[in-house]
Every structure is written in structure tokens, then in C-alpha cells.
Amino acid sequence: ALLFTPFIGDIHFDHRLFFESALVACRPNGAKIPRKILAYETLSETNWNAPGLSPAFAPNVYYDISEYLGKKIEALEIFASQMQAFPNERSIEAVKALATLRGATVNCRAAEAFVLIREIL
Predict the structure, then answer these.
(1) Distance from CA of residue 90 to its chain's centroid?
(2) Alpha carbon of residue 102 to chain centroid
(3) pLDDT in the model for residue 73
(4) pLDDT mean by block of 10 residues, the chain; 121 residues
(5) According to the model, what pLDDT value does residue 119 have?
(6) First-to-last CA distance in the chain?
(7) Disulfide-capable partner of 114 in 38, 52, 69, 86 (CB 3.0 to 4.6 Å)?
(8) What is the pTM of this model?
(9) What burial class does residue 12 get, using C-beta atoms within 10 Å of its C-beta: 0-12 exposed, 13-18 middle, 19+ buried?
(10) How many whole angstroms separate alpha carbon 90 and alpha carbon 42?
């Protein structure tokens, strides 16, 4: 199983609580635990932490989403109340820009970036 969780350094308190709760619930001491745990970044949450005081998001896992970026945008449009007009970080344009940047980092058109928390091989 694979678990995606918000990044521990997010400024949003609920995200940090979710992260910590997920790690408690997924301690590797049972048969039904995720084999991989990845923390994701959230625009307007992950990058607003206190530099030097909060953990920095330094991705080390990338998923090529070039084929799926359009579907991601369609899904975000369903949550119109959570989206804002550009240049706000919670805009469709900013989401596309981040996907493009993360993709360029690993030589693809669009990517999602994650921090690997644990992987059991």
C-alpha cells in the first residue's frame, strides 16, 4: 500500500496534525501497513513555513504527471471555492507552473514532487 500525506512543514496546523497522526497509525509493527509513505507539497501551505525553524520541503521522489495534468486541473476546478485568481498561489496557473517546474527538474513536461518518509522494500 502507498500513503500520501501532507508535508510536516506545512503552515496549516491541520496538515501537521494529519502527518503526525498518519505516522502513528502507520507504525511498521503490523501486517497491514503502507509499504511507502510520501509527503506532498501544497501550494500556499508548504512554502509559507518559517525558514530555518521549520523543515524545508526538499523533494526526492517525482512522479511524471504529463499525461494527467489536464485531469488534475479538471479536479481542481470542482473545488472552485478553494481556488483564487492568478497571481495567487492557489490559482490554476500557479498549479500548472509548479507542475512544469517540478517536471523540468526531472526532464519531463509535468511532475508531482514528494518527500519519501519511509519505504519498505
Answers:
(1) 14
(2) 11
(3) 97
(4) 95 95 93 94 87 90 98 96 94 97 98 98 93
(5) 97
(6) 12
(7) 38
(8) 0.93
(9) middle
(10) 9
CA atoms within 13 A on the CB side of 42: 21
Comparing CA positions, the residue from 22, 59, 54 lying closest to residue 40 is 59
In degrees rounded to 5, what are phi and psi of residue 37?
A: -125, 125
pLDDT at 35: 95
Measured torsion, CA atoms of residues 66, 72, 77, 81, in degrees rounded to the nearest 10 = -130
Question: CA–CA separation, 99 vs 110, rounded Å?
Answer: 5
Q: Which residues pair with 116 in a beta bridge?
A: 38
Q: What is the pLDDT of residue 9?
A: 92
Going by their DSSP bridges, the two strands 111-119 and 61-64 should be labelled as antiparallel
Integer Cα distance of 10 and 46 in angstroms: 4
Q: Look-up: residue for cell 501537521? A: 16
